[in-house]
Amino acid sequence: MESLFVPTLIVALAEIGDKTQLLALLLAARFRRPWPIIAGILAATLANHFAAGALGTWVAGLLAPAQIGWLLAASFAAVALWTLIPDRLDEDEGSRFRQHGAFLTTLVAFFLAEMGDKTQVATVMLAAQYPHFVLVVIGTTLGMLLANVPVVLAGNFAAERLPLVLIRRLAACAFATLALYSGYQALKLGGAA
After folding, report:
1. Residue ranges of the domains in the chain?
2. Which of 18, 25, 85, 102 lies in disulfide reach of 155, CB 3.0 to 4.6 Å?
3. Average confidence (pLDDT) over 85-99
4. Within 10 Å of residue 38's Cβ, how many Cβ atoms?
5. For residues 179 and 76, is the Cβ–Cβ distance under 8 A?
6. What is the spatial distance between Cα 91 and Cα 50, in angstroms, rounded to a whole number?
7. Cα–Cα distance measured from residue 15 to residue 84, given in angstroms and rounded to the nearest whole number
8. Neighbours of 31 (CB within 10 A)
9. Which residue has the higher pLDDT, 193 or 49?
């Protein structure tokens, strides 16, 4: 059972304050439908963490840690800029994003947000450490849900009062900070090589 409990605890703690918690809040405020968002988080996390456990070790062997750091820095910077651009969802209920619904939007957004995230990396390491791969993936997925479901539910109740422009700017600042940190880490790793 250690293959289940340790990954659950590690990911739940790692997820606190993570970018996907902010994404959960934004999706809850935007769609105001918590259950399809929660289902999307579950499906995206299962798919992402299964892929992480199966392929993560192989990919990590292809790139140097500094290269991975620079790739993350560029990705976070791009997401920071993208976050500042309001989509039509805020102004137009007929937006192409709205037509895909809360579940599909959450599924895609969470799957992509988890790419290269610390919880994805943790899943790779935990799957290598513990003998029961399926229990590790279930545990890391439970950890994600423990951290994000309360945010979705709270965001859903507070959606009418949330200033989406301010939240978008704060999210952009958070992603920019992650970009700077990843670049700093890449510089440190590059200097150590």
Report:
1. 2-192
2. 25
3. 46
4. 22
5. yes
6. 37
7. 23
8. 23
9. 49
The pLDDT tens digits of the residues spanning 174-185 come to 778 877 987 898
CA–CA distance, 77 with 174 (Å, rounded to integer): 10
The closest of 188, 38, 178 to 110, measured between CA atoms, is: 38
**Phi, psi dihedral angles at 30 (to 5 degrees):** -75, -45
Q: Are 29 and 166 in contact (CB under 8 A)?
A: no
Which is it for the CA torsion 57, 60, 65, 70, positive or negative?
negative
3-state helix, strand, coil in the chain (%, to 5): 85, 0, 15
Regarding pTM above 0.85, the answer is no
| Dist CA 12 CA 15 (whole Å) | 5
Q: What is the Cα 60 distance to its own chain's centre? A: 19
Angle, vertex CA 47, rays to CA 98 and CA 26, nearest 5? 35
DSSP result, 72-106: HHHHHHHHHHHHHS--TTTT-TT-HHHHHHHHHHH
b/e for 138-159, b at 16 or more Cβ within 10 A?
Answer: bbbbbbbbbbbbebbbebbeeb
Residue with tokens 């969802």: 89
Q: How far is the first Cα of the chain from the last one, in angstroms, to the nearest whole number?
A: 39
CA–CA gap between residue 44 and residue 1 (Å, rounded): 24
CA nearest neighbour of 48 among 1, 133, 111, 102: 111
